[in-house]
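Students often ask why inverse folding is considered easier than folding. One informal answer: many sequences map to the same fold, so there is more than one right answer. In these notes we will look at a single instance of the problem. The structure comes first.
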């Protein structure tokens, strides 16, 4: 089932997610719905807060990046078919010199900006079977993970921009939060306070 993606301005996007355990209700159904929602919106990652749930869970599938002609064959091969579930993730290390990449977000449609992130991460997480993993990722894979990880920490990529960039996109962000945007996927916009 395709879930509505929560739009910029909803308080759930600013909250730190809570850990879950194997007893979390209907987890497999939620995971299926999150993947279906992500694919329907042509995304490569989706975090639980983006579907209104304040939990530490995100899914990703980097396969669309494997078609990028600017990448080496090794990078394309690594990204192709890389589909994972991250539960209760904790980034242990971030290393290297920060590099810029043009990021977007399904909760912030039509806004893309260069974001600086470290190129290599070490992350501890549980998979969908609650098996613990500690793995190292770099390049685009690390970036997608960092972006989704930020979501479960209540951080949006727009918060990593310079003060000037934030000022330049403020009007567009306000419009998104008011539902004044056209998107090709189902979205849930924050409720507007009625004026008296």
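Output (designed amino acids):
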């Amino acid at each position: 089932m395709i879930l509505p993606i929560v739009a910029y301005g909803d308080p759930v996007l600013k909250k730190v997610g809570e850990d879950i355990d194997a007893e979390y209700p209907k987890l497999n159904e939620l995971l299926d719905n999150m993947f279906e929602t992500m694919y329907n919106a042509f995304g490569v990652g989706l975090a639980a807060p983006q579907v209104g749930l304040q939990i530490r869970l995100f899914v990703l599938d980097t396969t669309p990046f494997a078609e990028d002609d600017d990448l080496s064959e090794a990078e394309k091969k690594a990204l192709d078919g890389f589909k994972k579930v991250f539960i209760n993730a904790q980034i242990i290390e971030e290393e290297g010199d920060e590099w810029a990449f043009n990021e977007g977000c399904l909760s912030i449609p039509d806004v893309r900006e260069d974001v600086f992130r470290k190129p290599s991460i070490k992350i501890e997480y549980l998979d969908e079977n609650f098996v613990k993993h500690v793995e190292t990722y770099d390049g685009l894979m690390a970036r997608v993970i960092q972006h989704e990880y930020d979501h479960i920490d209540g951080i949006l990529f727009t918060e990593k921009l310079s003060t000037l960039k934030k000022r330049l996109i403020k009007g567009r962000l306000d419009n998104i939060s008011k539902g004044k945007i056209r998107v090709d996927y189902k979205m849930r916009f924050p409720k507007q306070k009625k004026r008296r």
